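Question thread 4412

I'm putting together a teaching handout and wanted feedback from people who do this every day. The idea is simple: show students a protein as raw sequence, then show them the structure tokens that encode its fold, then repeat with a second protein so they can compare. Below is the first pair exactly as I plan to print it.
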Amino acid sequence: MERIDHMEHLDRHLVDELAQVARETIREELREQTRKQRRTAMLYATSGALALYAGAAVAVAVGLALGIGLPDWAAALITAAILGVAAYLVRNAAKPHPARPGRAHGSLPGSAPSGPSTGVGAPVPPMPRTAPDAHLPEAAGTTRPQDAGPSDPRPQV
């Protein structure tokens, strides 16, 4: 019995050692990935700051060019309006747009619509405009499915 207890102790010790090695390996890998991501983020931030200064220089140049033929206040106002319109257009380009009726999201104007999207990449087959049993003779005193109103909540394409 003493031998089994000794083996269990060795097994526990081995499991603890393996867990420690695994933790240290994962920590080191995460540190390395974090260093790479930190460097990438710093380069993106620097690039953004430089682009901001470049945009400011262009705005000053536009204001000075307009200031040749206009009063300074009018040149500054026009420059501010141009920057405001540019900011509005960029913001609208960044916002997701809902799919327009009759056109799937992402399709080009003038291209054939691919049908409503289910969100998983496969288009939904189009629904028929009439009920499948509309061509069958009706029993006396029954209402047709078309008279009962639309039962499908999806919009017809």
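The second pair follows. I'd like the answer to focus on this one:
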Amino acid sequence: MTTLTAAPTIAIPEIAAAARADRLTEAGAAWSERIDARRDSSKLTYRVTGSGEGAVATRLRSGRHEFVIDEPAPLAGDDVAPSPVELALGALIGCQVVVYRLYAQALGIQLDDIDVTAEGDIDAARLLGKDDTVRPGFSAIRLRIELTGPETQERYEQLRDAVDVNCPVYDLFANPTPIAVEVAKA
């Protein structure tokens, strides 16, 4: 029997709105200067590695960070961490928060706070080999973005339009991305 303990809480430093605005402005200016000086400096490659553990869990490493993905018991997991699809929705939420803050700053739109909820629908019949006519991934995703601040609804819609066309993870979900897979015997 495995005894599960609560995951440690990660402390995220508090930041005042003015300090956040300064950081966003400085980061945007620095990236803009780098890209203007050398266009190919904007091309980034992210690398994450993972190893299977337990029943169906995966321990992932990205730089100095480590995190775990698992499945609930009905899908053979130990339920020690979020599932891959939950983390995918979480990645979408995280990217939305970043890009909303970046573009609010760039467009001069006051954004005091942001809360995002993502829901995604999956038909597990494909995953379990019961119906190959349904898509194995999300058939629909719904995002609810709650913005707090003094701006009008129209200004926040303008912000949403900018985010929709510039958010990298939103783009992953909205458009096909080429994937190359190589299987190698270890």
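Top answer:
Good format. For the second protein you could add a caption like this: The chain has a mean pLDDT of 92. The first helix runs from residue 17 to 37.
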